[in-house]
Amino acid sequence: MPTILPVTELRNYGEVLREVAPGSPVFLTRNGRGCYAVVDIEDWELRESARDLVAELDHGRASAAGGTRTLAEARDHLARLMAGEHGE
User: Fold this and answer.
1) CA–CA dist 39, 17 (Å, integer)
2) Does residue 71 lie within any of the structural domains?
3) Which of 20, 45, 52, 59 has the CA that lies 20 to 30 A from 9?
4) pLDDT band at residue 86 using 50, 70 and 90 as cut-offs
5) Closest to 18 (Cα-Cα) out of 33, 32, 38, 36
6) Domain for residue 65, yes or no?
7) What is the pLDDT, as a whole number, of residue 24?
8) Half-sphere exposure of 4 (CA within 13 A, CB side)
9) Per-residue burial over 43-67, b = 16 or more CB atoms within 10 Å of its CB, e = otherwise
10) The predicted structure's pLDDT at residue 29
C-alpha cells in the first residue's frame, strides 16, 4: 500500500526512504496534490520492462497491420537484411 506524505517531509528524507518498499511507493504531495513518487528500484525496473514489452507488442501489431508475407517472402526479406540491404 502506498504512503502519502507532504513533500515537506523530505526534510527527514531518511524516514521517508524507510517507508519505501517493493510494492509500497511513497507519494509526495504539494498543496494536497500528487507531485512525486519514490519507488523501490525493483518496482521501477519491472515497470520499465512492462512498458518496453507493451511497446514491442504495439510494434508487432502495427507490423502485422501492414500485411503478411509468405514463408518464402519472409526468408528472402531476412536474407536481404542479413546481407545489409535495407529496402523492402
Assistant:
1) 9
2) yes
3) 45
4) low
5) 38
6) yes
7) 95
8) 7
9) beeeeeeeeeeeeeeeeeeeeeeee
10) 97
Residue type, 5: L
Which of 28, 22, 26, 67 is closest to 42 using CA atoms?
A: 22
On whether both 48 and 70 belong to a single domain, the answer is: yes
Q: How many domains does the chain have?
A: 2
Is beta strand 3-6 parallel, antiparallel or unpaired with respect to 26-30? parallel
pLDDT at 65: 82
pLDDT digits (tens, 9 = 90+) for 34-82: 999 999 999 999 999 999 999 999 988 888 887 788 899 889 988 998 9
Same domain flag for 33 and 61: no
Q: Are residues 23 and 47 in the same domain?
A: no
Give the pLDDT of residue 14: 96
Report if residue 88 sits inside a domain: no
Q: 60: domain range?
A: 42-82
Length in residues, the chain: 88
